[in-house]
Fold:
Amino acid sequence: MPSAALFDIPALAGNVKPKPKRPAPVHVDRRWFADVDRVTYLGTHQPVWLEREEFGRDCIPLCVAQHRLSGRATLPRAVTPWMLDSGGYKHLEKHGTWTLSPYMYAADARRYYDDIGMMDVCAIQDWMCEDEILAATGLTVADHQLKTVASFLNLMTLDAELPWMPIIQGRTLDDYLRCIDLYDQVGIDLMLEPVVGIGSVCRLQRTDEAARIIETIWSMGIRLHGFGFKATGLRRVAHLLYSSDSMAWSMNAVNREPMPGCVGQHVHCGNCPKYARAWRNQLLNSLPDDPQLLLAA
Structure:
Protein backbone atom coordinates (compact mmCIF):
# COMPACT_ATOMS: atom_id res chain seq x y z
CA MET A 1 0.00 0.00 0.00
CA PRO A 2 1.45 3.45 -0.87
CA SER A 3 2.85 5.49 1.97
CA ALA A 4 0.48 8.10 3.35
CA ALA A 5 3.30 10.59 2.95
CA LEU A 6 2.76 10.46 -0.80
CA PHE A 7 -0.63 12.11 -0.27
CA ASP A 8 0.55 14.84 2.07
CA ILE A 9 -1.15 17.62 0.13
CA PRO A 10 -0.12 20.52 2.44
CA ALA A 11 3.52 19.45 2.16
CA LEU A 12 3.31 19.26 -1.62
CA ALA A 13 1.53 22.60 -1.81
CA GLY A 14 4.31 24.20 0.19
CA ASN A 15 6.79 23.32 -2.54
CA VAL A 16 4.76 25.01 -5.30
CA LYS A 17 6.05 28.46 -6.14
CA PRO A 18 3.37 31.17 -6.52
CA LYS A 19 2.65 32.19 -10.07
CA PRO A 20 4.53 35.42 -10.84
CA LYS A 21 2.42 38.51 -11.38
CA ARG A 22 2.29 40.21 -14.74
CA PRO A 23 4.14 43.53 -14.98
CA ALA A 24 2.31 46.80 -14.49
CA PRO A 25 1.44 48.87 -17.56
CA VAL A 26 4.09 51.29 -18.72
CA HIS A 27 3.06 54.86 -18.03
CA VAL A 28 2.43 56.49 -21.39
CA ASP A 29 0.97 59.85 -22.34
CA ARG A 30 -2.24 60.18 -24.30
CA ARG A 31 -1.61 59.96 -28.03
CA TRP A 32 -4.47 62.28 -28.84
CA PHE A 33 -7.19 64.13 -27.01
CA ALA A 34 -10.88 64.16 -27.89
CA ASP A 35 -14.26 64.29 -26.17
CA VAL A 36 -13.76 60.74 -24.89
CA ASP A 37 -11.20 62.08 -22.39
CA ARG A 38 -13.80 64.31 -20.82
CA VAL A 39 -16.43 61.63 -20.28
CA THR A 40 -14.40 58.55 -19.30
CA TYR A 41 -14.65 58.75 -15.51
CA LEU A 42 -11.93 57.08 -13.48
CA GLY A 43 -13.39 55.36 -10.41
CA THR A 44 -11.55 55.82 -7.14
CA HIS A 45 -11.85 54.66 -3.52
CA GLN A 46 -10.01 57.81 -2.41
CA PRO A 47 -12.07 61.06 -2.36
CA VAL A 48 -8.85 63.01 -1.75
CA TRP A 49 -7.95 62.35 -5.39
CA LEU A 50 -10.50 65.02 -6.27
CA GLU A 51 -7.98 67.65 -5.18
CA ARG A 52 -4.84 66.07 -6.63
CA GLU A 53 -3.03 68.44 -8.99
CA GLU A 54 -2.27 65.87 -11.71
CA PHE A 55 -5.95 65.00 -12.20
CA GLY A 56 -6.87 68.66 -12.48
CA ARG A 57 -3.97 69.42 -14.82
CA ASP A 58 -4.94 66.62 -17.22
CA CYS A 59 -8.69 67.16 -16.65
CA ILE A 60 -9.24 63.51 -15.75
CA PRO A 61 -12.83 63.18 -14.48
CA LEU A 62 -13.33 60.99 -11.42
CA CYS A 63 -16.17 58.85 -10.07
CA VAL A 64 -16.66 58.61 -6.31
CA ALA A 65 -19.29 56.53 -4.49
CA GLN A 66 -21.61 57.99 -1.88
CA HIS A 67 -20.39 55.76 0.97
CA ARG A 68 -16.82 57.05 0.44
CA LEU A 69 -17.97 60.59 1.23
CA SER A 70 -20.77 60.05 3.74
CA GLY A 71 -20.01 61.05 7.32
CA ARG A 72 -16.81 62.96 6.54
CA ALA A 73 -16.38 66.06 8.69
CA THR A 74 -14.41 67.76 5.94
CA LEU A 75 -14.57 67.26 2.21
CA PRO A 76 -11.96 67.75 -0.52
CA ARG A 77 -12.26 70.67 -2.90
CA ALA A 78 -12.35 69.33 -6.45
CA VAL A 79 -9.90 70.51 -9.09
CA THR A 80 -11.35 68.21 -11.75
CA PRO A 81 -14.91 67.27 -12.82
CA TRP A 82 -16.45 64.27 -11.11
CA MET A 83 -19.63 62.23 -10.78
CA LEU A 84 -21.33 60.87 -7.68
CA ASP A 85 -22.16 57.16 -7.80
CA SER A 86 -24.90 55.97 -5.44
CA GLY A 87 -23.08 52.75 -4.51
CA GLY A 88 -26.43 51.04 -4.98
CA TYR A 89 -25.15 47.61 -5.97
CA LYS A 90 -23.27 46.99 -2.72
CA HIS A 91 -26.00 48.67 -0.68
CA LEU A 92 -28.84 46.54 -2.07
CA GLU A 93 -26.74 43.38 -1.99
CA LYS A 94 -26.06 43.95 1.71
CA HIS A 95 -29.41 45.29 2.92
CA GLY A 96 -31.97 44.16 0.34
CA THR A 97 -33.39 47.67 0.26
CA TRP A 98 -32.31 51.29 0.41
CA THR A 99 -31.74 52.16 4.09
CA LEU A 100 -30.76 55.72 3.16
CA SER A 101 -33.92 57.79 2.66
CA PRO A 102 -34.29 60.08 -0.38
CA TYR A 103 -34.20 63.05 2.03
CA MET A 104 -30.84 61.98 3.42
CA TYR A 105 -29.39 61.13 0.02
CA ALA A 106 -30.52 64.46 -1.47
CA ALA A 107 -29.09 66.35 1.52
CA ASP A 108 -25.76 64.56 1.16
CA ALA A 109 -25.64 65.21 -2.60
CA ARG A 110 -26.36 68.90 -2.01
CA ARG A 111 -23.49 69.10 0.48
CA TYR A 112 -21.09 67.45 -1.97
CA TYR A 113 -22.25 69.70 -4.80
CA ASP A 114 -21.71 72.86 -2.74
CA ASP A 115 -18.61 71.95 -0.72
CA ILE A 116 -16.64 69.82 -3.20
CA GLY A 117 -17.72 71.63 -6.35
CA MET A 118 -17.29 70.66 -10.03
CA MET A 119 -19.91 67.86 -9.83
CA ASP A 120 -21.04 66.84 -13.31
CA VAL A 121 -23.82 64.44 -12.40
CA CYS A 122 -25.12 62.50 -9.44
CA ALA A 123 -26.69 59.09 -9.90
CA ILE A 124 -30.11 58.42 -8.40
CA GLN A 125 -30.87 55.61 -5.94
CA ASP A 126 -31.59 53.06 -8.64
CA TRP A 127 -32.45 49.37 -8.21
CA MET A 128 -30.17 47.03 -10.17
CA CYS A 129 -31.52 43.91 -11.88
CA GLU A 130 -28.69 41.39 -11.61
CA ASP A 131 -29.72 37.96 -10.26
CA GLU A 132 -28.01 38.44 -6.91
CA ILE A 133 -29.69 41.80 -6.34
CA LEU A 134 -33.13 40.46 -7.24
CA ALA A 135 -32.48 37.59 -4.83
CA ALA A 136 -31.49 40.05 -2.09
CA THR A 137 -34.60 42.21 -2.49
CA GLY A 138 -37.07 39.43 -3.32
CA LEU A 139 -38.64 41.67 -5.96
CA THR A 140 -39.12 41.44 -9.72
CA VAL A 141 -37.46 43.34 -12.55
CA ALA A 142 -40.70 45.30 -13.01
CA ASP A 143 -40.66 46.25 -9.30
CA HIS A 144 -37.07 47.46 -9.56
CA GLN A 145 -37.91 49.53 -12.62
CA LEU A 146 -40.83 51.25 -10.88
CA LYS A 147 -38.68 52.01 -7.83
CA THR A 148 -35.89 53.37 -10.02
CA VAL A 149 -38.23 55.78 -11.82
CA ALA A 150 -39.74 56.77 -8.45
CA SER A 151 -36.26 57.57 -7.13
CA PHE A 152 -35.65 60.06 -9.93
CA LEU A 153 -39.01 61.74 -9.29
CA ASN A 154 -38.43 61.87 -5.52
CA LEU A 155 -34.95 63.34 -5.81
CA MET A 156 -36.01 65.89 -8.43
CA THR A 157 -38.84 66.95 -6.12
CA LEU A 158 -36.46 67.34 -3.18
CA ASP A 159 -33.76 69.30 -5.04
CA ALA A 160 -34.35 69.94 -8.73
CA GLU A 161 -31.21 72.09 -9.02
CA LEU A 162 -28.86 69.14 -8.58
CA PRO A 163 -27.68 67.32 -11.74
CA TRP A 164 -29.58 64.10 -11.10
CA MET A 165 -28.94 61.40 -13.69
CA PRO A 166 -31.99 59.22 -14.45
CA ILE A 167 -31.15 55.54 -14.87
CA ILE A 168 -32.87 52.83 -16.87
CA GLN A 169 -32.82 49.27 -15.58
CA GLY A 170 -33.62 45.86 -17.01
CA ARG A 171 -32.31 42.52 -18.21
CA THR A 172 -33.40 42.36 -21.86
CA LEU A 173 -33.93 44.94 -24.59
CA ASP A 174 -37.69 44.78 -24.01
CA ASP A 175 -37.07 45.48 -20.31
CA TYR A 176 -35.07 48.62 -21.04
CA LEU A 177 -37.63 49.86 -23.55
CA ARG A 178 -40.36 49.30 -20.97
CA CYS A 179 -38.35 51.32 -18.44
CA ILE A 180 -38.03 54.17 -20.94
CA ASP A 181 -41.82 54.03 -21.37
CA LEU A 182 -42.25 54.28 -17.59
CA TYR A 183 -40.32 57.55 -17.57
CA ASP A 184 -42.40 58.79 -20.49
CA GLN A 185 -45.62 57.94 -18.67
CA VAL A 186 -44.66 60.24 -15.78
CA GLY A 187 -43.68 63.07 -18.12
CA ILE A 188 -39.92 62.52 -18.33
CA ASP A 189 -38.56 62.60 -21.89
CA LEU A 190 -35.16 60.91 -21.59
CA MET A 191 -34.08 62.34 -24.95
CA LEU A 192 -34.08 65.77 -23.28
CA GLU A 193 -31.89 64.66 -20.35
CA PRO A 194 -28.17 65.57 -20.52
CA VAL A 195 -27.21 61.95 -19.83
CA VAL A 196 -29.06 58.77 -18.82
CA GLY A 197 -27.45 55.88 -16.98
CA ILE A 198 -27.94 52.34 -18.26
CA GLY A 199 -27.70 49.90 -15.37
CA SER A 200 -27.18 46.16 -15.05
CA VAL A 201 -25.22 45.77 -18.29
CA CYS A 202 -21.78 45.60 -16.66
CA ARG A 203 -21.56 41.81 -16.85
CA LEU A 204 -23.11 41.70 -20.31
CA GLN A 205 -20.84 44.32 -21.84
CA ARG A 206 -18.80 41.87 -23.93
CA THR A 207 -21.89 40.25 -25.48
CA ASP A 208 -23.78 40.90 -28.69
CA GLU A 209 -26.95 41.35 -26.62
CA ALA A 210 -25.45 44.25 -24.66
CA ALA A 211 -24.26 45.91 -27.86
CA ARG A 212 -27.75 45.50 -29.37
CA ILE A 213 -29.39 47.02 -26.29
CA ILE A 214 -27.06 50.01 -26.21
CA GLU A 215 -27.20 50.58 -29.97
CA THR A 216 -31.03 50.49 -29.96
CA ILE A 217 -31.30 53.03 -27.15
CA TRP A 218 -28.57 55.21 -28.70
CA SER A 219 -30.54 55.24 -31.97
CA MET A 220 -33.49 56.72 -30.04
CA GLY A 221 -31.41 59.83 -29.32
CA ILE A 222 -30.77 59.07 -25.64
CA ARG A 223 -27.29 59.96 -24.37
CA LEU A 224 -26.12 57.00 -22.30
CA HIS A 225 -23.72 56.59 -19.40
CA GLY A 226 -22.32 53.08 -18.99
CA PHE A 227 -21.62 51.99 -15.41
CA GLY A 228 -18.54 49.87 -14.73
CA PHE A 229 -17.30 49.44 -18.29
CA LYS A 230 -14.04 47.55 -18.61
CA ALA A 231 -11.59 47.87 -21.49
CA THR A 232 -13.07 45.13 -23.71
CA GLY A 233 -16.63 46.38 -23.33
CA LEU A 234 -15.69 50.02 -23.87
CA ARG A 235 -13.78 49.24 -27.07
CA ARG A 236 -16.94 47.55 -28.34
CA VAL A 237 -19.46 50.31 -27.62
CA ALA A 238 -17.48 53.50 -26.89
CA HIS A 239 -18.99 55.18 -29.96
CA LEU A 240 -22.49 54.59 -28.55
CA LEU A 241 -21.88 55.97 -25.06
CA TYR A 242 -21.90 59.60 -24.00
CA SER A 243 -19.89 58.69 -20.90
CA SER A 244 -18.73 55.75 -18.81
CA ASP A 245 -16.92 54.97 -15.58
CA SER A 246 -14.73 52.15 -14.37
CA MET A 247 -12.94 50.88 -11.26
CA ALA A 248 -11.46 47.95 -13.20
CA TRP A 249 -7.98 49.44 -12.97
CA SER A 250 -7.87 48.80 -9.20
CA MET A 251 -8.42 45.03 -9.37
CA ASN A 252 -6.10 44.96 -12.37
CA ALA A 253 -3.42 46.58 -10.22
CA VAL A 254 -3.91 44.14 -7.33
CA ASN A 255 -3.09 41.27 -9.68
CA ARG A 256 0.00 42.88 -11.20
CA GLU A 257 3.43 44.00 -10.10
CA PRO A 258 3.68 47.56 -8.70
CA MET A 259 4.50 50.38 -11.09
CA PRO A 260 8.18 51.28 -11.55
CA GLY A 261 8.97 53.66 -8.73
CA CYS A 262 6.26 52.17 -6.51
CA VAL A 263 8.24 49.06 -5.49
CA GLY A 264 8.80 49.26 -1.76
CA GLN A 265 6.13 51.93 -1.32
CA HIS A 266 3.16 49.55 -1.41
CA VAL A 267 2.52 45.84 -2.03
CA HIS A 268 0.30 46.57 -5.03
CA CYS A 269 -1.00 49.65 -6.84
CA GLY A 270 -4.71 49.07 -6.13
CA ASN A 271 -5.00 52.60 -4.72
CA CYS A 272 -2.17 54.22 -6.69
CA PRO A 273 -2.97 57.35 -8.76
CA LYS A 274 0.09 56.74 -10.94
CA TYR A 275 -1.21 53.28 -11.89
CA ALA A 276 -4.76 54.58 -12.41
CA ARG A 277 -3.60 57.25 -14.85
CA ALA A 278 -1.40 54.76 -16.72
CA TRP A 279 -4.31 52.30 -17.02
CA ARG A 280 -6.67 55.01 -18.27
CA ASN A 281 -4.17 56.31 -20.83
CA GLN A 282 -3.55 52.78 -22.05
CA LEU A 283 -7.30 52.19 -22.36
CA LEU A 284 -7.98 55.40 -24.28
CA ASN A 285 -4.95 54.88 -26.53
CA SER A 286 -6.41 51.49 -27.49
CA LEU A 287 -9.55 53.07 -28.99
CA PRO A 288 -9.50 53.85 -32.74
CA ASP A 289 -8.36 57.39 -33.49
CA ASP A 290 -11.04 57.88 -36.11
CA PRO A 291 -14.61 57.86 -34.69
CA GLN A 292 -15.80 56.64 -38.10
CA LEU A 293 -13.83 53.44 -37.52
CA LEU A 294 -15.78 52.94 -34.30
CA LEU A 295 -19.07 53.48 -36.10
CA ALA A 296 -18.10 50.94 -38.71
CA ALA A 297 -16.92 48.34 -36.16
